What we know:
Elements: E1 12-15, E2 22-30, H1 34-42, E3 53-54, E4 57-58, E5 64-66, E6 69-73, E7 84-91, H2 93-105, E8 109-110, H3 115-122, H4 128-139, H5 143-153, H6 156-180, H7 196-211, H8 213-221, E9 223-228, H9 235-243, E10 261-267, E11 270-276, H10 286-301, E12 304-310, E13 321-325, E14 332-334, E15 337-340, H11 348-363, H12 374-393, H13 398-416, H14 422-429
Parallel strand pairs: 1-8, 9-11, 9-12, 12-13, 13-15
Antiparallel strand pairs: 1-2, 2-7, 3-6, 4-5, 6-7, 10-11, 14-15
Helix pairs in contact: 4-5, 5-8, 6-7, 6-13, 7-12, 12-13
Amino acid sequence: MLETSPVQDETIFALSSAPGRAGVSVLRLSGASAGRALEILTGRALPKPRVASLRDIWDGDGEVIDKPLVLWFPAPKSFTGEDCAEIHVHGSVAILESVARRLTELGLRQARPGEFTRRAVEHGKMDLTEAEGLADLIDARTEGQRVQALSNMGGALRETYEGWQGLILDGLAQIEGEIDFADEEDVPDGLSHAAYPFLTKAMEGMRAALAGAEKGRAVRDGLQVAIIGVPNAGKSTLLNALVGRDVAITSPQAGTTRDIVEAQAVIAGLPVTFSDTAGLRESSDAIEAEGVRRARARAEDAHLVVYVVRGEAALEVASDIIYINTESDVLERGGARVTGNALSGLGVAELLSEIERQILEKYAGLENAALTRIRHVDCITAAAQNLELARAKLGNDSELASEDLRKSLKNIEELAGRSDMEQVFDRIFSSFCIGK
């Protein structure tokens, strides 16, 4: 008879598939007592590792709860690096509640958001950037986001920063050689200068990554396209035509749009948010004036700006694309200018084509951009700054240069999640879904 007393360690469980009624639901267990809990549930010895087995599972009164497939993943060859198990039950709410109740009786506890992935990081199964890539992959809505997330989950950023680490360590070795063996006759004078090429190469790589970071984040977070213009230019009508549905109120009355109206689309494989904004004009109305302020701010922050004008009023304006809205049936296109009729839809396809062209020109190929989060940028910005300080001190103060390089390495360790980052971990993994 198997021992059925409650466990005393931090073995966790959670539903890893979508909640609610389904054909199959997956419960995941992780921790030192995952195997023992699985033995108690099934009343049998553990199945062969990584081989699905059909078993009855039992409640505490000896009644069968379900007949699921179970899998056993002994440490360290598991997702978390701990002993893990999966129970593939029929997707009934009643079954899930019964299994969860039994696991709780056995002393397991419900996992917190992201706790499985956090344990995987803590046990060295992945670094923090790979965990963030996994979270982004789960949230990916478009092909570009999927490619970017899969790249980081697969270790693209890890390979990049490990290359920088190697260069910094090579440079540090040169400097330390000069410091530690300064009195030795066979150590060349000015050995620390040999560190210069290593540090320069690392710094150039960091600067290149930082230069592409904003565009990389745009792929991850989505692009903003602001539609601006004077009142009654047809901005709201154009927004409705662009997304193919009525999302903004249209009216001949000027100043109808006061606040920003948003609508989503997918263009060139990337998520795009169109923003219809208040007409640009001076106004004594406090609400309209606030709308105009928000319109200008949205245009300032947008990745692309479409300026809508009426008839022949196509002045030179600071925008990426100009849509000349007329009441005629004449379509004209010249570079970033499109003449059409927003009400009839004339020129909308051409406008979308121009938006797609500019998105591809500015953001294509950046799905593999290394730095996709503000945290990444902060870490590598600090690392590059410390590299610059170290490089400036070569030949003058080797010991201080060495200290700056160690700080740079620490910045990269923070990127990887290998330093004391409890608060950062709490913030990052709290955004994960429970069961992941």
